[in-house]
Amino acid sequence: MSDVIIIGGGPAGSTLGCYLSQAGISNIILEKAFHPRPHVGESMVTASTRVFQEIGFLEVMEREGFVKKYGATWHAPSNRGKFAIAFGEFPQEGIEQDYTYHVDRSQFDLLLLKHAESFGSKVIQGVVVKRVLMDENGRATGVRAAIDDVEFDMHAKLVVDASGRDTLLGRQLRIKKKDPIFNQYAVHAWYKGLDRGDDESKDHIHIYFLPVERGWVWQIPITEEITSVGVVVDKQVFKELFTDMDAYFQKMTETNDNLVHTMRHARRINEYKTEGDYSYSMDSFVGDGYLMVGDAARFVDPIFSSGVSIALYSAKFAADRIKKAFDTDDFSAEMFQPYEEKLRGGANVWYEFIRLYYKLLPLFTHFIQSPKHRLQVLQLLQGEVFDRQEVPVLDAMRKYIEAVEKTEGHFFKAHLSDISIDPVPETGVA
Ligand SMILES: Cc1cc2nc3c(=O)[nH]c(=O)nc-3n(C[C@H](O)[C@H](O)[C@H](O)COP(=O)(O)OP(=O)(O)OC[C@H]3O[C@@H](n4cnc5c(N)ncnc54)[C@H](O)[C@@H]3O)c2cc1C
Are the beta carbons of 201 and 75 closer than 8 angstroms? Predict the structure, then answer.
């Protein structure tokens, strides 16, 4: 019997396995798929490096030769305007590298899972966890799992849900709340023949704004030749514009001049994939004998490539409290509450930033080009989000929006969207 059962061997589950093994806590990772398996979420932020260092994974990232990501570039829908940031402009504490990575997730997730195994996690693939077992007081005691159709129970002192957007435990407990604002829909595929240019932004993530509600396209280099392209719009827009996939994809990518240029010789090399209903939060992330990490707890719109970084940090913060729980033999919800607060705080900073961004798109462009605000915005884009005090730029953005709302004839007024930017509550669903 292991001390901890981890449901899911994605970035959150594997990273948690590494931290727990480092602390001498035995753990078993139950993964329903057989890795390598494809996954969306291919571009990282630099804060991830800190976690890679701590779990000894940075050498693996370097050895595998993933594409190095030095920054990000945004493209206006028309007039071929664009602007960029480079991560190296703002040094990050404890991080030497001025780049992060773009990854083929099937490869990255496999390597991380193997890394966890090499550290001591017991990994079983092809096991579907059906549900978390609870005693009469609602305390988690183990899981009911299945290999093919054969079901069996496993028990442990602690169960961690790292099942990603499957949100196994959140659904079981009926505590999953759909985001009241965001209902995005993404269609994506890999391409060859994209013209990524030859300047320093060649290996940046490129974000192309589309002239539709919350519409944008990602361009992420996966290898020298392969580029991931994804179209994201509000689901309602998708429903209105969709006829067939090729026509839809072409129609959307034709609405940004720079993207038309970039994709003029592009040829799709795999099937389209779609992702929907992906913004939500659980009412709580912890309980007696259990906690949730990564997407299993909370997911915010991926416009700033925050997901993997949140998954890694959630594992780091969860491991801290789990160590304390084993030291004191206390596996109560109260023990894990500080973890929830920390993770919720970080996710809420991203969430606030994302809402302010969508509230007034030109504001982001303006701030990133302003000498006064540029570095603070960059700090956010690097993923340094776990201390709200350290990101005063959010208040500055808020004030600016208020001024635009109040000022008759303001230049940006026509660009205001109807998104609510009310402060995010400290706990509960944001
Ligand atoms: C459109 C879109 C674009 C995105 N772009 C980015 C990006 O550019 N950068 C970024 O950082 N993030 C991005 N993300 C987010 C990113 O995909 C996730 O945040 C990240 O994968 C979370 O890791 P995780 O380990 O929590 O979950 P996952 O990576 O989903 O891993 C969960 C694992 O659990 C397994 N599992 C599920 N259910 C069970 C079960 N019942 N039993 C056993 N195993 C189970 C799954 O097979 C899977 O391997 C994007 C997301 C979307 C929707």
Answer: no
